[in-house]
Amino acid sequence: MSMQGPSEMGASGKLEKWDRVADLSKISVPTLVIGAKYDTMDPAHMEKMSRLVQHGRYLFSPNGSHLAMYDD
Fold first, then answer.
1. Which end of the chain has the least Cβ crowding within 10 Å, N or C?
2. Cα-Cα-Cα-Cα dihedral of 36, 40, 45, 50, to 10°?
3. pLDDT (tens digit, 9 = 90+) per residue, 25-63?
4. Pairing between strand 56-61 and 31-36?
5. Backbone angles phi, psi at 38, to 5 degrees
6. How far apart are CA 18 and CA 64, in angstroms?
7. CA–CA separation, 30 vs 15, rounded Å?
8. What is the dihedral of CA 15, 21, 24, 26, to 10 degrees?
9. Rounded to 5 degrees, what are φ and ψ at 69?
């Protein structure tokens, strides 16, 4: 599973197989993961990432894009 989840953006070379998902469980600080309807990063994938972090929370921005904290 890539960090961006399903996306039209692609990676090649050294980044093609870059995957830090196993490291998410090591994050112990409270973490807010934001997903947005118009983001290139899949909101469902962002929600899954929030569950992999020890103290993760998820916020969905129905009108947001990649900078949802400014859009919505």
1. N
2. -50
3. 999 999 999 999 998 889 999 999 999 999 999 999 999
4. parallel
5. -105, 20
6. 27
7. 27
8. -90
9. -65, -20
